[in-house]
Amino acid sequence: MAKPSGEVEVPNKQVILKHHVVDGIPQESDMELRLTTITLKAPSGSASILLKNLYLSCDPYMRLRMRHIQGSYADSFVPGEVLYGYGVSRVVDSDHPDYKIGDLVWGITKWEEYSLIKPPWQLFKIEDTDVPLSYYTGILGMPGMTAYVGFHGICSPKEGDKVFVSAASGAVGQLVGQFAKLLGCYVVGSAGSNDKVELLKTKFGFDDAFNYKGEESIDAALKRYFPEGIDIYFENVGGKTLDAVLANMKVHGRIAACGMISQYNLREPEGVHNLMLLIAKRIRFEGFIVFDHYDKYPEFLKKVLGPIKEGKIIYLEDIAEGLESAPAALVGLFYGRNVGKQLVRLSTD
Amino acid sequence: MAKPSGEVEVPNKQVILKHHVVDGIPQESDMELRLTTITLKAPSGSASILLKNLYLSCDPYMRLRMRHIQGSYADSFVPGEVLYGYGVSRVVDSDHPDYKIGDLVWGITKWEEYSLIKPPWQLFKIEDTDVPLSYYTGILGMPGMTAYVGFHGICSPKEGDKVFVSAASGAVGQLVGQFAKLLGCYVVGSAGSNDKVELLKTKFGFDDAFNYKGEESIDAALKRYFPEGIDIYFENVGGKTLDAVLANMKVHGRIAACGMISQYNLREPEGVHNLMLLIAKRIRFEGFIVFDHYDKYPEFLKKVLGPIKEGKIIYLEDIAEGLESAPAALVGLFYGRNVGKQLVRLSTD
Ligand SMILES: NC(=O)c1ccc[n+]([C@@H]2O[C@H](COP(=O)([O-])OP(=O)(O)OC[C@H]3O[C@@H](n4cnc5c(N)ncnc54)[C@H](OP(=O)(O)O)[C@@H]3O)[C@@H](O)[C@H]2O)c1
Ligand SMILES: NC(=O)c1ccc[n+]([C@@H]2O[C@H](COP(=O)([O-])OP(=O)(O)OC[C@H]3O[C@@H](n4cnc5c(N)ncnc54)[C@H](OP(=O)(O)O)[C@@H]3O)[C@@H](O)[C@H]2O)c1
Q: Considering only CB atoms, which chain B residues are within 8 Å of A74?
């Protein structure tokens, strides 16, 4: 169909989910690249905006969307359709009064080069651009807010608290550790390789760290690093790690249930056995989801932009190049291949 | 040995733990009656008091004391020694300035007719005696406080909340349900017999109740009574019930972890599988122990004494007669033999 003048049709690569993935780590072959076209126009009267996607974020929760999971906040991805998730994008056309061409946004977009997004959307305007734009997929975006509201909002932390963080070198974990250190806590993290452990100790300022894959018993490791017990556990992993942590919590401890990535690829989640200790130790175990707390985003930005620019909070990214590499980057999260926040760069302009 | 005049030696029956009980429901034969004697005198300079025990309380947590349980707030009972627990007693001699002969107290005493108790003790003076004295083992004692601080303090209840209580006809559960009704909640309880279910509906004013032993699936039962989900779960039972409840909680629900009686007799606790739902549903799951909250006892008494006397809060007791019946009464908790608060009457004078 001929386009009215001024409307440009361009190629648009997409990442498609081929089928639901019930159990097991998803494979690249569960997704496929599809070449389509798109008209770079937000149709008049549609109130939509047309985005050029610059960065896409690979997030563990996307695994849950690859299947039907009962009672989850997340809908399933639809087989045959393009994946969606967080990203950083530039507005290339707008039929909505709140957005104009050239605006930068972060929020939910689709895994493709250009996306036509209709309201209601979950988008935040990017005002501060003297930090890397990619940071809005991480420290200045959803994972940053997750660390902030999860740690400060759920964990009731105070100076001197003993804090344990699992998946500690990742998008969320590296920040939780730094927030805890800024408050004067003792912080130990676990991660899945010796290199990550080194990073935690040397780059992110954790007091200590261990490679959980090299430990015969997580319980024994925790006893080594927390001989008097754990006040705060920032839970990213679940399963056996959670059981070991429960056995090592202090009385009146707090557990922020952020994620349980070790369970995402199982058909049935493992059983956790030590829950009676919640009573004996009067533990508060509280789940949260970042999007309930986005009203605190401006407050968060104000708190972290300065320290980031001064180098007092640092952030490590793992950037894959091009949409073609996105499926592998997403899958890599479940093998721990990412070192720092995993994202995909589609374009720099 | 001849006693100084005025010191009377009397027979004193005791209940002794014969050996630790690792798993399985404890048997009467794990305990034995021992006949000793005691001098009815608080030795001068000992700062102790001599109690005549009138009522003894049978409480599920005593099962945990029958073995070594790691990380528990409770020490184990010592094989060969007398059991201890909550009771109502009269001071028959005192070498302590705070207590005088004739004072009535409730708190930790021993499973025997007379007990010499040394400080530090956990005793509360009974001032109000125009209610049944036995109530101080239940509604006016530890279980009453448990229901009060657990429900009002941990569950953040509000009018209209949908509340589920397990072990609902017991010492704690019958009160949680009544407190919830007084606040205008919708309350459903589960219990282990049809008679208990009838009691819940007719005597305690629960909106509904079911016999969990007659249900093929607790999940299905919960879906029947809570088609829109549960705001508050008062957890007395643990295990499979907890898993089913998690699947039926509403977003932002609260679970007060009070007890997990279905796990107390197992060598290893069962696994709980649905903990990822804590995140998806942003649930707060919080353990508590009543003795952290005893500072609120005066406030509690002020709130409940009136309604009890006016019959607006009722309390059902299951009273066994004589110390000889105490082991069977304790064991009976784990078969659900008690209908209401299980206690043992030793004496009425
Ligand atoms: N509640 C919320 O709103 C919210 C928001 C964002 C994220 N989250 C959750 O937060 C957690 C961390 O997310 P993130 O974005 O920061 O991811 P990430 O840590 O950057 O990447 C995932 C990491 O998890 C570790 N991992 C993978 N499989 C594992 C297993 N079986 N056992 C233990 N560790 C495993 C790997 O690191 P190792 O090499 O160390 O194994 C991997 O690098 C996830 O559970 C996620 O779902 C929750
Ligand atoms: N956190 C604290 O400070 C605190 C203080 C007091 C009590 N608690 C806990 O609160 C709970 C209730 O105590 P309570 O004094 O009110 O006891 P209770 O309910 O008066 O007596 C125990 C009842 O539990 C039920 N039960 C026994 N085995 C069970 C099983 N395997 N599965 C399901 N139900 C079972 C039985 O009733 P059915 O016939 O209905 O099965 C039995 O009558 C216990 O878990 C206790 O440990 C905690």
A: 280
